[in-house]
Amino acid sequence: MTESRSKVRRAGPLTYRGGAIPATTTDQRLLDRRGPSDWVHTDPWRVLRIQSEFVEGFGLLSEVGQSVSVFGSARIRPGNPYYETGELVGRKLAQAGYNVITGGGPGLMEAANKGAQEAGGTSIGLGIELPFEQMLNDYVDVGVTFRYFFVRKTMFVKYSQAFVVLPGGFGTMDELFEAITLVQTGKVTRFPVVLVGSEFWGGLCDWIRQTLLLEGVISPDDPDLMHLTDDPDQVVEIIRKAHVDLARREFEAEQVEQASADVRAAEAGGNGT
Ligand SMILES: CC(C)=CCNc1ncnc2c1ncn2[C@@H]1O[C@H](COP(=O)(O)O)[C@@H](O)[C@H]1O
User: Fold this and answer.
1) What share of the chain has pLDDT > 70, as a percent?
2) Which one of 130, 135, 150 would you pick to mutate in the ligand 1 pocket, going by the greatest count of ligand atoms within 8 A of its CB?
3) Hey, whose CA ends up nearest to atom 17 of ligand 1?
4) N or C: which end of the chain has fewer CB atoms below 10 A?
5) Span of the secretion signal (predicted)?
């Protein structure tokens, strides 16, 4: 065998020998290469970026405990009574042992983060890149800023066990109706949705009953998917009760499952004798 034929190059799991050995190493091709950069604006590359947002979000949030997402207007400022309500809701949730997750922005998001932080709870902000410069509010203890709206929305649903919806505009409506649709279609099953502010939300709730229900575009039980209250203590109470009910239903379902497994096992044993 000639000397050049006997040369071997291993590149990760690959083996090259003789004339098949590439002229450059993988690192050289990665680090030395200068070429057109348009590939960073292609959809396949974006898919990797989207994946990395899921990885960052899941990594950050998968170890936080029981959490409640609080939504509400980016525009309602301190001094407005709804801001105080937002703070109180954040505080009560934290005192009840829930982490508070918001969109990390100003207004009522800030209010809920402030209440949670000042009560010693974990205050989380899931920010979004917007066309104008914006930082996470000062009351976010744990934060991540997303490029993609839909990735961020998955995080709210996946890592909280309830939604609280303070007064707000289109963004808040979007978050409210996404949650309700997920509950209505059975995509999530553990999810109380609590509206705060009967004066603000009353008209919407009436319209849901008087128009959507009467026109038959929702089911008779659907309006009850949302709870409405003005009282931050009741917000916590509604969420707690829903979680206790859910745990009881899950326990009962497990018991039924176990009982029928026992019956099947007994029948199988009986058949064998
Ligand atoms: C001053 C201003 C418009 C800032 C926007 N900055 C924002 N930062 C983070 N989340 C936001 C922002 N705007 C809207 N959202 C999302 O949409 C909801 C508020 O929208 P809106 O203000 O109700 O319609 C929030 O719950 C939040 O999740």
Assistant:
1) 97
2) 130
3) 171
4) C
5) none
